[in-house]
Design a protein that fits this description.
Order of helices and strands: HHEEEEH
Helix content: 25-40%
Largest sheet: 4 strands, antiparallel
Length: 69
Amino acid sequence: MKKSRIEHVKKYSMLSLVEDLGFTLVYESFNYYHLEEHDSLKIRVNINRFYWYSKGFGETRLHYARHWV
């Protein structure tokens, strides 16, 4: 991933990033969302990170963008 793209992605919140990529957010509980398309991908809003339980990985929005972009 190019450095300019990395800097751009770092400015995004996880919620904005997944919405801009065309996924549908589902409110789960305070600080937690999951994707309608992938219900095992959980986003923790308070720390701006995700974990994809069915795939066994997760981290920051940068890791997410590297996987999807």
